[in-house]
Amino acid sequence: MNRIPFRTSALLAGVLAAASALSACAPLIVGGAMLGGTLMATDRRTSGAQVEDQAIELKSLNRVRDLLGERNHVNATSYNRMVLITGEVHSEADKATVEQTVTRVENVRSVVNELEIMGASSLTSRSNDAIITSKVKATLVDAGDLFATAFKVVTERGTVYLMGRVTEREANRASELTRSVGGVQKVVKVFEVISEAELAELHSKTPAK
User: Fold this and answer.
1) CATH of 26-117, one of 3.30.1340.30, 3.30.2280.10, 3.10.20.880, 3.30.1490.20
2) Are 131 and 160 in contact (CB under 8 A)?
3) Stretch among 24-38, 105-119, 153-167 having the lowest mean pLDDT
């Protein structure tokens, strides 16, 4: 098993602490983004897009719950107005309803529906997913040749979804690293791919520290 370097232990501890707050009686979960000053400055989305993404996630959560109640476990994660839907629902009809509902949320640009038709995952499974997510994030931080803040990581039943505005090179490197993490069953890319020239332009606009 790969050991996580000491310098990422604070990151790992923080994510694990958040994972411990998972509740078995909360079948609908929204994947929120941290909007701290430093993270906003290094995020490849505009500040407006980051705010929109949080609003999209919250509205998606509320509208799906209003329609389907508590009978499904649905996660909605938005990055640059692309929404990834994960979790478990009881029927094809519920799966279609969730997608249609999220698609109609204001400012949503596209939807990737990865819902599975099956019983809701257990608290143990979700806790394991949170641990895998923390390990993937720590691995991206330690890589040295990637900007870890450019990636959003979502894990469902051992499948890791990678989101972000990245180049093809970054996408492939992040996927390779993620596959090396213990417990990862599959890696799914949900990226907005940009060119190396676009990346250089984004870096040129990043405020100097």
Assistant:
1) 3.30.1340.30
2) no
3) 24-38
pTM, 2 dp: 0.79
- The secondary element (H helix, E strand) that includes residue 12 is helix 9-19
Biggest alpha carbon–alpha carbon distance for the chain: 51
**How many angstroms separate the CA atoms of 117 and 115, rounded?**
7
- Extract the tokens encoding 184: 């990862």
Q: What angle do CA 157, 86, 77 make, to 5 degrees?
A: 120
In the chain, CATH 3.30.1340.30 sits at 26-117, 123-204
What tokens were used for 63?
Answer: 């509208």
Is the distance from CB of 109 to CB of 81 less than 8 angstroms?
yes
Give the architecture (CATH level 2) of 123-204. 2-Layer Sandwich (3.30)
- Structure tokens belonging to residue 199: 């990346």
Per DSSP, the residues of 111-131 read EEE--EESSPPPHHHHHHHHH
Tell me: the pLDDT tens digits for 87-123?
Answer: 999 999 999 999 999 999 999 999 999 999 999 999 9
β-strand partners of 71: none
Q: How much is the mean pLDDT over the chain?
A: 85
Distances (CA, A) of 30 to 7, 8, 33, 82, 90: 29, 25, 10, 14, 19
183: left (phi over 0), alpha (psi -120 to 50) or beta: left
